[in-house]
Every structure is written in structure tokens, then in C-alpha cells.
């Protein structure tokens, strides 16, 4: 989620540096007109829309851990932009980042809910959004002082670091129990709880996974059951309002939307940072 937010703000930082109305001071090698900037902005959200359904399928096949590792692989694709430095590679990079964001955010919420203690589960799931806004804020703060290429290299290195470190983290005990790998599930639960006294919780996980497997479930069930329909309606409405509110466009176009003021310490870049600070504070 940190990387997702970082790549959202990357477009904001790069806007003035790649516009065809601005000089190529950083020797990027190409310029973007207003239509290409619009595509650069919306392709991230387009990728984000297309991947969650696929993420649900992948999670069932390979598990939560490896789904997150797959999303990290998509975060590495922007390396193409660093190599070729043209409009097409930029489009591919933006779409792949959005695709990775959809997989990561879908999988991460489920993974956290399955490994976290019930007393802190809600807080940890909510922190995913906070870290995304923290990623936005970090890039807005750092991107103003370093070249765009350096910033892009840093963001491309982070997924590799994540894959190395996360490879040592166990799979969700709930998923392992669901695929009948009970010994691995118990070992995983002991690792997450840092205790060998997990018999009671482990039995609860096994019973829950067995009940879920017997009940099954399909996409149709989301609309057949009145409670599910209500939940789906709430999710669709809130998510639609969030995206249609224009948060991505607001962040990306902030350097051009906000005029430079007469205050030297409050230019358009600082206005973007203030907005992101308020958003992050609200998420906390």
C-alpha cells in the first residue's frame, strides 16, 4: 500500500517535469501533451479496476502470500520506463502499477484479517489505507528535491526489497488449513503468535475453514442473499464515491491546479503536501 500511494504521487511530482509546455531540464527525453497526461493519470485507476477480481481467483489458487509477491512483480514493471523512456513504456508502467495496486490492496486486507489477533484486526486493516497516503506524502516531500529518474529508481528497488523480506513470512494459517496443510498451518500460527500455545485458536481456525469449504460460495451468492446484497451495495457506493470524487486527479493535477501564491513558503507543491497531510490525518 505504501508503494501504491507513492506511484500515485509520482505522477504529481513528474507533471511539470514532463509537460510539453515546460523545458526538459532533467533530460527525460520526451514531452507529454495534455491528452497524454490524462492517459498517464487514468491508466493507474484502469489497472486498479481490472485486477481485484483476478486477485480473488489467484488467492484461492496460490495463497495470500504468493499473491502479494505477484503484485510486487507488477510493481517492478516500471523499470521499462527507466530503460526506454518513451510514452508507451510510461503507459505500461502506470497500468501495471494500478494492476499491482488492485491485487495488493485486495489481498492485503484478507491476509491481515487472517493472521492478526481479533483485538487489533480492524486497526491493522485500516492502517493499509494510512500507509498508502503515507506513500503519497513521502513522494511529494522527497520528489521536490531529487531528480525524477532517481525517484523512479528508488520506487523500482522497493518491490525487490519487499520480495526478499516477505519471502521469510509464512502463509496465512487460515489458507493453509483450508487446503488441508494442517501442520504448516499450525507452524504458521505459532510464528505469528510467537507462542507454542495456539491449540485452541488453531482448532477454531480448522473448524471455520472446514465450515467455509462445505458451504462453498460463488459470485452469484453475493446477490442471492439479502445481507450480501446490502454489503455489496455499501461497498460499491462508498468505493464509487471515493473514486468519482477525483482523488487521483486532485493529487496528480495539484501542481497545476493551485496557483503559486505571494507567500514564498506556500507554492503549489506545498499545497499538494498540505492536502495529503489532511487526507492522511483523516485516515488515522
TrEMBL record:
Signal peptide residues on this chain, from the entry's feature table: none
InterPro entries linked to this entry: MFS_sugar_transport-like (IPR005828), MFS_trans_sf (IPR036259), MFS_Trehalose_Transporter (IPR050549)
Alphabetically ordered keywords of this record: Membrane, Transmembrane, Transmembrane helix
Molecular function terms from GO: transmembrane transporter activity
TM segment ranges: 37-59, 66-85, 91-112, 124-146, 152-169, 231-254
Places the protein is found: Membrane
Gene3D superfamilies per UniProt: MFS general substrate transporter like domains
Predominant cellular place of this UniProt entry's protein: membrane
Coiled-coil residues: none
A cellular-component GO term for this protein: membrane
Protein name: Facilitated trehalose transporter Tret1-2 homolog
Organism, scientific name: Cacopsylla melanoneura
Amino acid at each position: 500500500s505504501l508503494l501504491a500511494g507513492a506511484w500515485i504521487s509520482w505522477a504529481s511530482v513528474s507533471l511539470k517535469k514532463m509537460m510539453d509546455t515546460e523545458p526538459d531540464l532533467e533530460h527525460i527525453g520526451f514531452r507529454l501533451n495534455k491528452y497524454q497526461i490524462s492517459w498517464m493519470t487514468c491508466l493507474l485507476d484502469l489497472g486498479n479496476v481490472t485486477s481485484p477480481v483476478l486477485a480473488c481467483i489467484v488467492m484461492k489458487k496460490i495463497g495470500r502470500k504468493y499473491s502479494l509477491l505477484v503484485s510486487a512483480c507488477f510493481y517492478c514493471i516500471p523499470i521499462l520506463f527507466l530503460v526506454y523512456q518513451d510514452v508507451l513504456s510510461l503507459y505500461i508502467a502506470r497500468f501495471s502499477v494500478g494492476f499491482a495496486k488492485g491485487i495488493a490492496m485486495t489481498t492485503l486486507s484478507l491476509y491481515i484479517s487472517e493472521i492478526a489477533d481479533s483485538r487489533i484486526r480492524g486497526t491493522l486493516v485500516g492502517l493499509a489505507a494510512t500507509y498508502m497516503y503515507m506513500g503519497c506524502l513521502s513522494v511529494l516531500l522527497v520528489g521536490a528535491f531529487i531528480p525524477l529518474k532517481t525517484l523512479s529508481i528508488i520506487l523500482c528497488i522497493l518491490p525487490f526489497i519487499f520480495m526478499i523480506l516477505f519471502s521469510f513470512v509464512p502463509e496465512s494459517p487460515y489458507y493453509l488449513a483450508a487446503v488441508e496443510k494442517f501442520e504448516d498451518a499450525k507452524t504458521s500460527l505459532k510464528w505469528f503468535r510467537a507462542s507454542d500455545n495456539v491449540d485452541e485458536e488453531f482448532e477454531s481456525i480448522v473448524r471455520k475453514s472446514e465450515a467455509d469449504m462445505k458451504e462453498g460460495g460463488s459470485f452469484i451468492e453475493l446477490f442471492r442473499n439479502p445481507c450480501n446484497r446490502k454489503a455489496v451495495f455499501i461497498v460499491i457506493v462508498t468505493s464509487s464515491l471515493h473514486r468519482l470524487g477525483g482523488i487521483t486527479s486532485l493529487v496528480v493535477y495539484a501542481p497545476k491546479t493551485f496557483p503559486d501564491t505571494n507567500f514564498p513558503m506556500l507554492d503549489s507543491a506545498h499545497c499538494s503536501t498540505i492536502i495529503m497531510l489532511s487526507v492522511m490525518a483523516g485516515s488515522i
